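Let us begin with a simple case.
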Amino acid sequence: MEELARQTDALVGRRDYAGAEALLLSRQREARQKGWPGIELSICSELMGFYRQRLNKEGYYAARDRAFPCWGPYAWTRRPEPRCL
């Protein structure tokens, strides 16, 4: 996760937002395929923060919805709505 954060920060620092999004999405898919729900949840959290910074509601909601299955039995029954978007 630390290396992913460094790579993402470097891309965002160069204003390569499309590259940062593509990197996060590819790593999220990889974590899902490998059955790593904790890592997938962390990446979804990063994606939600990324989309909130970019004021991208649709991206935020998509990342939020991908995060819920990672919680397993701990998932909320009601999905909280973001207050700042």
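The second case is a distinct protein. As before, the sequence precedes its structure tokens.
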Amino acid sequence: MYRSFNANVVLVQDPREATCQEIAKFLQTNPNMPYEFQDAINYASEHNTLVEVYVGKSPVNPNGSKYRDIADRFKQGLVGDGLISVLNMNPLRLIFRVPVKEDNSSNNVL
């Protein structure tokens, strides 16, 4: 279909997806450490221009519909393949959980 028009097609990234990805990237920088959602979305807004255009400049208004939409995605577990958990709902606190492997070599006594 696109060849018949002989034109290039530009695909634009969904700003909601970009916001969620940027927040997930922020949470992954320090695994197993909780962050308030407000801090995470402000980080996303400061580090990605598409996110800034979508949700606004930092500090992002927590009463806006876009803010609530992104927060709902995390509350419903739609982001992070099950590795991002909600610790607290009000204020919303998120954590990127990484299983900690125990080192059994230190338990061996010679």
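The two ends are 71 Å apart (CA to CA). Residues 55 and 64 are 8 Å apart (CA to CA).
Keep these points in mind for the review questions at the end of the chapter.
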